[in-house]
Amino acid sequence: MIKELLSEEFQFDDPIIKKLDGYDNVNYLVVQGGRKCIFKTYPYSTSLYDILEAETKVLLTLQAENTGKFPKPIAFNSGDYLKKVDIKGESSICRMLTFLEGAFLGEISPSAKVYDALGDFLAKMDQKLHSIKDYVLQSRQWEWDLKAALLNTKYLGDIEDPHQRNIVRYFLKEYETHVLPIINDLRHQIIHNDANEWNILIQNDRVSGIIDFGDVTYSPLINEVAIAMTYASYDKEDNLQAACHVLRGYHKITPLIASEIKILYYLMAARLCMSVCNSAHAKKINSNNSYTSVSEIHAWSMLNYLLKIGPIAAEASFRGVIGLKTDKPELILEKIKKRHKHISPLLSISYKNPIAMECAAFQYMYDHEGHSFLDAYNNIPHVGHAHPKVVAAGQLQMQKLNTNTRYLYDLLPEYASRLTAKFPTPLNKVFFVNSGSAASDLAIRMTQMHTKKKHVMVMEHGYHGNTKTSIDISDYKFNNPKGPGQPDYILKTGLPNAYRSDLDGAQQATIAINELKAQENKIAAFIAEPIVGCGGQVPLAKDYLKNLYPAIRKQGGVCISDEVQTGFGRLGKYFWGFEMHGVVPDMVVLGKPMGNGHPIGAVVTTDEIAASFEKGVEFFSSFGGNPVSCAIGLAVLDVIEEENLQENAKEVGSYYKKLLQTLQKKYSCIGDVRGEGLFLGIEMVHDGTTKTNKKLAHFIKNGLRDRHILISTDGPDDNVLKTKPPLCFTKSNARQVVEAMEELLHLHYTH
Ligand code: PMP
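That is the input. Now the predicted structure with 4'-deoxy-4'-aminopyridoxal-5'-phosphate docked in place:
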């Protein structure tokens, strides 16, 4: 059939016909003698017919100067450029186009000059397309138009890897925030809309042509540039260089304006999202096709790269390329001065060179000058900064209902049930508050009511919060030289630190038990963190709690585990820190990661202790357990499960720890590497001794900061490097931290 048609309509009598790859149509290369054409066939539909007619109009317009740069439609005998025919019983549309010579951009190693030329080429083509009016194209709405990027949301579920899916969700949300509100104000026109490396032809380092106008659409002009920039860069190591050349080339011909440049980063990300969404969907609907194309791999790596660099640095590069002036960022000193006008300097600021943070995503934070920081420190954004599922849960619920626990709403029992399901049986009741401090405070109050005792046994260097009671139980605060001193109802016991003691956990517990016995007042509670953060990430020695808990209970006390830092899967092997010690507490204090940054805290305890508390006055917290907090808390639990983050903490954490232990073998100034999962401490000492080395720890902390990596220091002598990143941290992130540490250690020894 095709052969006859080619002969009758185009005088190809016995051509060589080669089937070519097409996205959703079938194309043939037809060759006879010196004559080469492209014969295209499409499944028939009236809407596609209209679009193909518009495409023909576009191609004919581009022939005006007969430059040979664009495929030229060849008419059938009727004079029409499209024909409806039956091919193998299927109603089809077909058309003939001239063949363009040249190598695909994707086949060569293009120089920077080629990318400049590509920008120039596209700008000149778009100037020709500018005059075309076409209502079919203007009203076309489909997934491959960047102005309709959000249509791809329906394919999100087809992306198999949940973390990757959430990265796409994040970028589509960014698009919604930054692009959608201004999109209608941008200059629109007909654009090619698919300047990828397999549609651009190169001859002698020049762009000789562009093919495949099947995606031609009416869209913001900047989308043309964004798409070309994306495909120029997505397979490169120095990811934005080629993109910047395309931008420069384009801007020289058609100057772009600030509002267009501002959204380029989000447009590029959205284009990549469209690509991975459609690939995932294609795999889903065609189960024979589980193949991950090279371009899909490039798209994912570019999305990760865009996350890494952030929007501010990208915009600054793009502005730089086209010579748009950028306002000088406000000086840090000015910012500090402003802050201290109404904010007390008692609220300290991290690092010798403080950072003005602007925005963040997953394990990256971006400062006001666009520097991107790898966050190896912040455990509050547990599932990742600005996690789109958590953000969406909060936004939606805020829009719907936010009230207090004196009304009935399903989210409260639902969240309570999901949360308590994470605990062993006796821990069955939950009281919601707004912070770890409020939770510690409430915990102590409950134990005092339950036991009718006042005294509390606390851990050396422990920290439990900022309220009056939580400071009373926090050695880290009351024992500070500027602190209020140890209250008389507090019994402090020594930190069972395996690194700094020859005694084992059981022996250390015996000391604590003897202290208990020696004290005339029976205690209401014993509170400790499973790994003592402010003590310098010190895991309580093995068997310590196992031996101590029974003794506490024997004399009527309640065992409290402060899981504010260690909970929710951070420790990898364990969802809660107490599991690491083989004990079950009577009460647990929760905070920080619970709401991924939204202020939620809770006390989880037994029915029995709750019943004692219920004999007292009503407990009410204006914000505790409100619908928004519950929705966010639920989203955090969902993401931990969906993205398998506890397992990631285990795998990446043990890899990270091994890298640090290897470093420790090389450098005798690393006294100890300790912790579990993604909650680690590196104790810096004077070479070969156990003498604390705060100066070195600070040198490394600040050195890492200057290399755009965030960690902190802690411990009684502030000589322990503390790392507890968002749980989406990767092995490559871990390598980056340890390599930078090694570089600094090397510097330390050579200077
Ligand atoms: N307990 C521990 C172990 C903590 O680390 C903290 C905070 N650093 C708190 C309680 C207090 O939590 P918040 O700051 O949310 O009040």
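The first strand starts at residue 16 and ends at 20.
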